[in-house]
Amino acid sequence: MTEHPLVHGGRSAALATACVRGGVAAGLGLGALAVLVTAAWISSPYPDGGPGGALHLAAGLWLLAHGVELVRTDTLSGLPAPLGVVPMLLSVLPVWLVHRAARDTLDADDEGLRPQTSPSGAVAAVAGGYLLVAAVVVVYSESGPLAADLVTAGLWLPAVVVGAAAAGVWTALGRPLPGQRQAAVALRATGLGLVTLSAGGAVAAAVSLAWHAREAQAAYAGIAGEWSGRVAVVLLVLALLPNMAVWGAAYGLGPGFTLGTGALATPLGLVGDPAVPPFPLLAALPTEARGTWVHGAIAAVPLAAAVFQGGRVGRAARSWTARDTALAALGAAWACGAAVAVLSAAAGGPLGTGRLSVFGPVWWQTGAATVLWGACVGVPVALGVRAWGRRVPRPKPLPAPAPGAAGGVAVAGPAAGLVPSATPAPEEGSRPDPAAGAAGQVGADPAAETPASTGTDPAGTGTGDADSGAARRDAHVPYDAYDSFGPYGDGGFEPYDYLPAAWESGPPAPPILPAPPTPPTPAVPPPPDRS
Known about the structure:
Blueprint: H1 5-9, H2 11-43, H3 51-65, E1 70-72, E2 81-83, H4 92-106, H5 119-141, E3 146-148, H6 150-172, H7 181-211, H8 213-223, H9 227-239, H10 241-253, E4 257-259, E5 264-266, E6 269-271, H11 293-296, H12 300-316, H13 322-347, E7 359-360, H14 363-389, H15 434-439, H16 451-454, H17 464-473
Antiparallel strand pairs: 1-2, 1-3, 4-5, 4-7, 5-6
Helix pairs in contact: 2-3, 2-4, 2-5, 3-5, 4-5, 4-6, 5-6, 7-10, 7-12, 7-13, 10-13, 12-13, 12-14, 13-14
InterPro entries: DUF6350
Region (Disordered): 417-531
Protein name: Integral membrane protein
């Protein structure tokens, strides 16, 4: 049997392959941004700097997509200004590349000859290869107009890369959940609440942008003159759309977001003097000093998220105790709060110095508000859904039979006359007594016992027998009595249960017998000759 050459290397060869995969993923993301920035630089009628400046800009944007704060050195005042707002849509490509590299590291080939590593080894190798390339990019950016802040580069960059690699390994293993059922349900509820909160924030931001469409159009026309500049602004707006969704969610949660030092926008109103630079998306921010019911209606977003989150836990907790249900719902609230805090930290940050040093949602405030919504709304909803699912339906009581003259059941309303009485069926060959059948119904109308109903003719006209058939049809005779006479004047009447449906086979058809042969016609003799 011939072994694959990589198998001889064993574990070290597998780790080296994973490290190379991480470096390739970093190069692909950086190259894609470099191509985009270079194309914008070539198409610009007034390019600022040469190709080196375009490459430095691409390196800075790549680091910014990983959460690294940049420092602008070419400002009008000459003082360095920080830039920490991450275009969250720009982060999708690098995160997906790391995720795919880690996932493919643990996926065996079709013949099973590729050496395998442990999950932790795959995460470390892929992240290590990626971070080697990132370190080179950080050093390169220090000589450009957008230098990387070393503190945030040492914190956010490894955290994002390791998290994406861990998610890729988790996907390769089949996305296993914790063995404890409560933890697995809490994680699913966290995902549902986070998706609901993000979708609601996106809808709120879109509605506000549509309401302030005229202001947004004016801001767009003011900062973009040539078509290349307009295309660049449109691309920047698209990259910041997820940020607007997080801002909308933070606004609905209650803490809102800061618009500079001393300015805060909440559903209750705007406090302070906002320092908002001209930008199309920022034109959608609320500017009213006092909030109206329209601003307060956005509180339905976190309310719906908490209800869905608690309902998800409650539906799975029908067999749990109330304590386990409350702990699972509270764990989902804490997990969702942590995720919202991370997203808020990425969606906001400084845009400069002075009043622009604080801009966007405050991460710890939005995270704490998410936990409070989940604890105050999600936990009671989970307990209520659990109690509703554990209820035992009570059987409906049947009506008690009322004692009658002959032990029958009294039926009131239009159904009277449709329920047979308990009067025994007459013997075969005897004619049932209509008066006895009528007496077997409790609550029957005494006026019904007329001479016509008893089959007698007081006038002696001889019509009693003619009317007795109708009396028997209306006397509620038991069903067994129909075996001895025809209620509709048909002696061959036979009761039946139901007619066969279209998909059921009916009774077998009688066999078709051949026709009897026709006897031969006898020959007629000729008449005798009388001549």
